[in-house]
Every structure is written in structure tokens, then in C-alpha cells.
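for the writeup, i need someone to sanity check this before i put it in the appendix. the sequnce is what the collaborator sent (i think, or maybe the updated version? ugh). structure was predicted straight from it, no edits. if anything looks off just tell me and ill rerun, i have time this weekend
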Amino acid sequence: MMKLSWIICMSIVCVLAECTPSNGLVAEATPAVTPVAKSEISDLREYQHGIDFIPLPDGTYALIWASSGNPPTGQLPNGNWTHDIYYSHIDPKHPAINPVLLIANPEAQEPASAAISSHGHILITMEDGWNTDQEVAQRYGVYDAALNPVLPYPQMVADGGHSGHTTASGNHFIVFYSEGWIDEGGVDGLGSGDDVRAAVYDSDGVLEYTLDVAVGDSSRDWWPLAAGSPERTLLVWQRFVDDEEYSHLMFSLLDMNTGSLVVSPAMLEEKVQYYTYNAVFIPSISRFLITGAHPDGTGFAYLLDAEGNTVAANTDLPAPVRESQAILRDGEGEVLAVEPIVPSGAMVLTLTPESIRLKYTLEDDYTWSYSGIDGIFLSSDTIYIVATSPMGLVERTLVLPQGTSKEYFPVICGGLQRGTHNHALTRPALGGW
């Protein structure tokens, strides 16, 4: 393993304006807020929670996230969270974030999770505290590639549902969510979810069927994630372990054609740090990649095939950041997965259908937050990462080294600005042009 140093400046997108829902218009600027130090915050997720880059048919992206205002203000004096759903169109040739408010209601709509179907429709789902019979509900809305409504929010997945995430499998959407809550245990003794269920929709958001994945009194299951291939969907979640400060990492595999589980719920990793895992499908090698962290501070990665078989494993990796996502370079030579690691920087994995190798780690001085991170490759060697934070979205741009024999790597710098954002300036490090 090699450890490479890289130098990066960051931009914080904290656009001081309120946006009119769904119309893309920005109203008059509001006064600035004073950023709050992390040490003063009990839960960073109260500011922003959940973020996804959605690839659009024209080669650009929609960035979708949940935030307690723009800029984020955190919880109300009574302790209630107030997240709304925002989006921004991202052109990879000139990446810049221009927030537009898409979904807004009292209480919180978070965490945001989004996916795009093969027909180009986008489903956005979130836990919602507004207007529910239960304490929260899992809701969704479906939009076209321009974020115009197809079947707009608020559509109900389940009253009482929570912690849901979505993926697309061909022309279907899957919302994988938790239901019920059991007090005590879990992070800070706050408890855990009870059951995990799936709801499958067509590309227009019409319900096709529901499925009980892990339901009953014999286990406590929650924080469900999903990754879709054209015909199958990997379902991943954590299972509570009595008297321990870790959980079991569970998985199952859903056949979209039959609506049945190809693999019944099974344990993939015995000890996983709460909430610290991720799953993604890699088309060029037809594999599912699952990454996560052990409670001892190390990380792991597995490759699963379409039958749910583990075909590769690496259990001695740096620990990825909670609620971070693997950023893929797929289809351009070597398959790479880049993921933020604790406390800062990123790891770069090289993947084949039967192997996972740590290529190198990249150092940085920015400490990641645990409330959501995603990114895209702008080119074969340039990665654009956007992270949620109490101050607003934080942009990071990194460049992969072209070789490993020289201690000489590019520097990407962007200005720290409020209200506007400029494209990053590129210059070489430690030498001339």
C-alpha cells in the first residue's frame, strides 16, 4: 500500500438565499449565519443529511440533498429538525452548485435518497415528520430528468416507515426502509429499528409490490441500503447485537423479475460499526461492491456476484466514513472505487471481477462529517466530492497521481465563497507550468 500526499483547497457552498420550491428562482438574499463549531453540535445530521449524485441522460448530473435551510440552521429551539430537499444541476465540465428548493414542509424531510430509472425518471425518498399518523413516515416523489413532477411528493411508502433509501433496477425503483423502533441500545443508547421491508415501483412511481425482508420479533434490523443492477437488487442493513457496540452486517438479494429473494437474509460481516457501510453495483464487472468499517477502526470490502456469492474480499482496509459512498471510475480502463476515509482523505481501490486491491490512500487536512458524502469522476483522474456539513455543502476536488514513482502531484484550489461559487483553478505543485 502506498500513502500519497495531496493538497486541496475547499469551497463551502452556503448560498445565502431562500429558493422557491421547484421553480428554480432565487429570492432576495437573507443575512448570513455564523457557522457552528462541530464540538458544539450533538448530532451533525441536524444540519444536513443525505446526498446523492444522479447521472442524467445528457451526461450531466442532478445533485440532491437534505438541508435545514440554505444555509443550514440546525434544529429548532424545541429540538425538532427542519430539513427540506434541495437540488442543483451539475455540469461536469464546469461543476458549480446552485441550490434550488424542491420539497419543503414543516418538520424534517431527511435523509434524502435518490435514484434514476432506465427511462430517465428520478425517485426521491425520505423519512418525513410532517402530517403523519405515526411519529414519522417514509415518503417519496417521482420527477423527470429536469426535476419536473411526474408523481410528486408527498407519496406514501409507509406511515411509520423510516431510514429508507432507494435504488433503481432497470425500469423499477426499490425503496428499502425500516419500520418500528425499539428503545435502548444502538448509538448513544438511542435504540434501533425493528424490521426492514421493501416497496417496488415502476418508473412512474406506481406501486408494483411490497416485500418483507427481515420482519419479526427474533431480530432488530435497521438502516437499510440498496444497490441495483439491471435485474437484481442487493439489500444491505445492520442487525442489532445484544450487549455489544457493533452490529452484524446483513444482506439479501432480490430478483426483480420474480419479486422473490434469491438469497435469504444472511450475515456478510460479523462486526460492523453502526451505520458505516455502503453498497454499489459496478456494471463493467457485473459485481456488487460493499464497503464498511469494523469497530476497531479498520475497513473492509466485498464483491458479490449476481447470485449473492462472495467472489472477493479485503478485510484490512482503512475505515470509510459513515454515510460516505464509493465513487466509481467504471468503463475507462482500470476499474477504481474511491471512498472518503476516517478522519480525512480517501482510499483508492482497484477492482476486477475476482479481486479488491488497495492501490493507495490520499491524505488531506479536511475532517469529513458523517451526514452524507458523494462524488463523481470529472475525468479519468479528477474527482469532485461534495460533503454535507453544519456550514453547508463542502466541495473537494482531487486528482489521482499519474504515477507512483514521483513525489509530485497536482494541486486543485477553489476559493472559499458565500453566495457564489467559481470553477476550481488548476496549477502544478512544486514546480512551474
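Confidence is low (pLDDT under 50) at residues 1-9, 14-35, 404-433. The two ends are 30 Å apart (CA to CA).
thx in advance!!
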